[in-house]
Amino acid sequence: MRAGDARSTAASPIIVKAGGSAGVDRAAVADLVAALAARGPVVLVHGASAETDRLSVLLGHPPETLVSPSGHQSRRTDRRTLEIFAMAALGIENFLYVELLQKRGIDAVGMSGPSGRLLVGRRKDVRARRGEKVVVLRDDLTGTVDTVNVGLLREQLSAGRVPVIAPLALSTEREALNVDGDRAAARVAAAIGARELLILTNVPGLLRDVADPGSVVPDATPDEADALARGRMKKKVLAAREALDAGVGEVRIRAATGSVEGTRIRGPAAALCQEVRR
């Protein structure tokens, strides 16, 4: 019997976002997703940053990191970078996660935003700091996710499958876009009514001291989390805030490995309940 046959797909799913940075253990992610899938519906959204960087160097098109006026970091995505990102996200990461989950008895199905118009959004006007100036990169193929084909996802979940989603989207002009995986996962979580968004990364959670892995903050409001976030963690906290604002019950940031539960980011309602309990 498949792991999904005995579970109730009527339950609110958990959305798992697996980071694509170096140091994220794919096998550990698969173990965790398989354990969750044995208890209820799960959707896995994954990144591909490390593989994209590796392929970009091998193919002679080195990666470029942009810093927005607000300080968020993102990948410079011209057309060639988008193609390399698709190779990494669909050709390597998606393939490997589907294979790892199938080995664990989970009927995983690989998906991406353009397929079946699963994720549809808008191309962004990308602004980036260049020295003292802020420039607009009009040829950048980065976008946002505005709508999620929930019916397509529920078809897979009702069949007992785990959708494994690569973070590409389709624009309203029918062109493929690179979208931030954390924020895409937040949109999926909001659209499908998830009870939890679990963001897996290569650190144990939000840290009071970035040099001390043992300084994990177990519980934080979005404002507290934002004050603690550094570098790419800022995007994860932004995604957490967007998910909570859209009604997702809980967001947790943690490593895939180890026993540390990471940082739970709670919304205003949860914070009020905690104050009442005190």
Layout of strands and helices, then pairs:
Layout: E1 14-18, H1 26-37, E2 42-46, H2 49-58, E3 65-67, E4 73-75, H3 79-103, E5 108-112, E6 119-123, E7 126-130, E8 133-137, E9 142-148, H4 150-158, E10 162-166, E11 168-171, E12 176-179, H5 181-192, E13 196-201, E14 219-220, H6 222-228, H7 233-245, E15 251-255, E16 263-265, H8 268-277
Parallel strand pairs: 1-2, 1-13, 2-10, 5-10, 6-11, 9-12, 13-15, 14-16
Antiparallel strand pairs: 3-4, 6-9, 7-8, 11-12, 15-16
Helix pairs in contact: 1-3, 2-3, 5-7
Features:
disordered N terminus, 4-stranded mixed barrel, Carbamate kinase, 35% helix, alpha/beta, 26% strand, 8-stranded mixed beta sheet
Structure commentary:
- With 278 residues, this protein is α/β, with parallel strands linked by helices.
- The protein has one domain: Carbamate kinase.
- Helix content is 35%, strand content 26%.
- The protein contains 8 helices and 16 strands.
- The protein has helices at residues 26-37, 49-58, 79-103, 150-158, 181-192, 222-228, 233-245, 268-277, and strands spanning 14-18, 42-46, 65-67, 73-75, 108-112, 119-123, 126-130, 133-137, 142-148, 162-166, 168-171, 176-179, 196-201, 219-220, 251-255, 263-265.
- The strands form 4 sheets. It has an 8-stranded mixed sheet, sandwiched between helices. Strands 6-9-12-11 form a 4-stranded mixed β-barrel. Strands 3-4 form a two-stranded antiparallel ribbon.
- Helix 1 packs across helix 3 (79-103), helix 2 packs across helix 3 and helix 5 (181-192) packs parallel to helix 7 (233-245).
- The radius of gyration is 18 Å and the shape is globular.
